[in-house]
């Protein structure tokens, strides 16, 4: 498509790592530790390690995909390449919903912390904004829009400036709280007062998986990265490992620094008593200066994240348009700036829309986490299918052990979806099935390209079966409103077997030949780099 213009390769390895870490260290670390403690108790610290391992496995798969196919918005294009437009359409829809709401989550977090100094921004007795509070959120969204509208370089450099402060504060908290650590806190009520289910709930709904959302931004700007074959795998692995270490330390030190007498009412009360965890614990320990720094960072960190997610969502909308299942206008790229401006406009409008119902941070985190992990789960499937229908694909980075890592990561992703509970799964996957029906009803308006509807359905039935399987198991399960008929460990065993069957079905039901769009400008540039 000659009208789209080439993306400019201006993002270095350092820029890429900062984008990834910046996406990870947003609002989650500022809220999640008290949620995790209230759901799992002291053993909640282990949930960060387990979550990090799960995301690392998926990240390794993305490293192979991102290096082999450095596409802007690649996370939405890989399923199209491997399984056709219908699968890509379903994954695109759920991912765009998640990312546009993520932007609104970040500005909501900023407003909630600003309200510490300006109470008039939040309605008393709730987390919802007043009119003035909503205008603050809207102003931030406008700022993110402008930073991304000018150029990729402006976005990346502004992110570096924000990142300097973002990483300084968590490290300062780690050092300071280490001097107030009390080991006896870990034995109050027992080390695992809520058992294994506490860990599972913390990972899925406590904010752990929401915190590990740095993968998509790295892969989404792949078409604009210098030397992507080298830099994408390095950035993915570095970001996940560093994030897991820092998050685990923050959780351990938060639990260990709580005044022991405040644990007398049980761990369930921690989320209420420490609604703004590190600010509240700084106040409880008599360190007003630390509370001030935390609030400042709580304004900057989510703000930086909102900027990153505005950039990422724009690339995802662009990628969705490139699949042929969204209006073609969103695939246009400004030749001067290298920015897909129509996609940026749509991302901005949708992010504003998500602020209109005035949701709180906690209300949206669960849904966003599940939506994003569903889009993560497609990576192992696409990578496995490519080894059948794209055997000649050049892979600068080949993941050893893919035959084990891919199905295991798919099973773990399925666990996280299940742990989110019936209330979330029922409407989220229900909406996906509705979008599937709408696609069939309006399929004659969708450009068929090389893939007819019959082949698209053949390559998509596994995904529909996966959604139905998860709805049934969740309904009979014991999480989030399920009937509770399926108990641990039988529910996990059934899910593992079902996910494994779906995985191998999906692996072998890809298109006869992957439809990789070799006419992409960014693809041509990467191929030329490989040849030279």
Structural features, described:
This protein has 532 residues and is an all-alpha fold. It has a single domain (13-352, 373-527), classed as Amino acid/polyamine transporter I (Up-down Bundle). Helices cover 69% and strands 0% of the residues. It is built from 23 helices and no strands. It has helices at 13-24, 28-40, 44-68, 74-83, 85-114, 131-150, 152-178, 195-205, 208-211, 215-220, 228-257, 270-273, 277-284, 288-322, 341-355, 361-376, 378-389, 402-419, 422-441, 453-458, 461-476, 490-507, 521-531. Helix 4 packs antiparallel against helix 5. It is globular, with a radius of gyration of 22 Å. It starts with 12 loop residues before the first helix and ends with a helix. Mean pLDDT is 84; it is low at 1-6 and 519-532.
Radius of gyration: 22 Å
- List how many beta strands DSSP finds: 0
Average residue pLDDT: 84
CATH H-level name... which superfamily? Amino acid/polyamine transporter I
CATH class: Mainly Alpha
N-to-C SSE string, H for helix and E for strand: HHHHHHHHHHHHHHHHHHHHHHH
Q: What would you call the structural class?
A: mainly alpha
**Main beta sheet, described?**
none
Instruction: Show unreliable segments.
Output: 1-6, 519-532
Work out the strand percent.
under 5%
Distance between the termini: 25 Å
CATH topology: Amino acid/polyamine transporter I
Shape: globular
The domain count comes to 1
């Amino acid at each position: 498509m000659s009208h789209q213009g080439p993306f400019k390769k201006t993002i270095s390895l350092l820029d890429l790592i900062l984008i990834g870490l910046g996406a990870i260290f947003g609002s989650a670390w500022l809220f999640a530790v008290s949620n995790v403690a209230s759901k799992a108790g002291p053993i909640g610290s282990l949930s960060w390690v387990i979550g990090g391992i799960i995301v690392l496995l998926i990240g390794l798969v993305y490293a192979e995909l991102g290096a082999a196919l450095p596409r802007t918005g690649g996370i939405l294009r890989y399923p199209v390449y491997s399984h056709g437009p219908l699968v890509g359409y379903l994954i695109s829809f759920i991912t765009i919903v998640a990312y546009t709401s993520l932007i609104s989550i970040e500005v909501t977090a900023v407003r909630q912390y600003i309200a510490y100094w300006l109470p008039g921004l939040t309605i008393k007795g709730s987390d919802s904004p007043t009119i003035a509070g909503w205008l603050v959120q809207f102003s931030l969204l406008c700022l993110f829009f402008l930073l991304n509208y000018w150029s990729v370089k402006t976005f990346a450099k502004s992110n570096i400036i924000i990142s300097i402060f973002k990483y300084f504060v968590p490290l300062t908290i780690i050092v300071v709280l280490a001097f107030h650590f009390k080991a006896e806190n870990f034995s109050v009520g027992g080390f695992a007062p809520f058992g294994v289910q506490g860990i599972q709930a913390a990972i899925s709904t406590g904010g752990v998986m929401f915190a590990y959302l740095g993968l998509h931004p790295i892969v989404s700007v792949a078409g604009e990265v210098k030397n992507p074959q080298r830099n994408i795998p390095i950035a993915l692995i570095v970001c996940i490992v560093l994030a897991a270490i820092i998050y685990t330390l923050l959780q351990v030190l938060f639990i260990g620094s709580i005044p022991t007498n405040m644990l007398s009412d049980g761990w369930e009360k921690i989320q209420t008593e420490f609604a703004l965890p590190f600010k509240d614990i700084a106040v409880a320990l008599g360190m007003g200066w630390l509370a001030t720094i935390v609030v400042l960072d709580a304004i900057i960190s989510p703000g930086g994240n909102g900027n990153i997610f505005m950039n990422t969502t724009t690339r995802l909308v662009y990628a969705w348009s490139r699949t042929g299942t969204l209006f073609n206008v969103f695939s246009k790229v400004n030749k001067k700036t290298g920015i897909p401006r129509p996609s940026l406009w749509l991302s901005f409008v949708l992010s504003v829309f998500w602020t209109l119902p005035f949701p709180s941070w906690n209300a949206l985190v669960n849904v966003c986490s599940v939506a994003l992990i569903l889009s993560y789960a497609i990576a192992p499937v696409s990578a496995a299918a490519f080894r059948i229908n794209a055997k000649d694909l050049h892979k600068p980075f080949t993941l050893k052990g893919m035959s084990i890592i891919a199905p295991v990561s798919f099973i773990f992703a399925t666990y996280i979806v299940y742990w989110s509970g019936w209330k979330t799964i029922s409407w989220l996957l229900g909406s996906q099935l509705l979008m599937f029906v709408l696609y069939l009803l309006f399929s004659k308006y969708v450009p068929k390209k090389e893939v007819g509807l019959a082949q698209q359905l053949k390559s998509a039935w596994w995904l529909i079966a996966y959604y139905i399987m998860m709805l049934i198991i969740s309904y009979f399960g014991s999480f989030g409103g399920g009937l509770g008929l399926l108990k641990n460990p039988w529910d996990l065993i059934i899910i593992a077997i079902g996910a494994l069957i779906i995985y191998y079905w999906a692996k072998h039901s890809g298109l006869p030949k992957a439809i990789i769009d070799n006419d992409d400008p960014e693809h041509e540039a990467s191929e030329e780099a490989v040849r030279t």
